Amino acid sequence: MMKSRSRFPLSQCSRSGLVYALLAGGVMLLAGCSGTPPTEQLAVSKSAVTHASTAATTQYAPVELQSAKDKLERAENAMAQ
Length: 81
What we know:
This protein has four helices and no strands. It has 81 residues and is mainly alpha-helical. The protein has one domain (17-80). α1 runs parallel beside α4.
């Protein structure tokens, strides 16, 4: 029997990058529901997106990474207002 190959093989590095990007989006979503400015959550999200911006992530999850970057930018703009 032949081994089935995944359509989108993800290395451990790219999986962790995807997890960080999704985590950042989730943190920003939850932070938007709170009453006080989420400066700490925004810093954590920014760090997660920066850490997720690896070559493997841009290769295997470019849409998710760009989505996380867009959400981070929107959150930063909302904090500035």
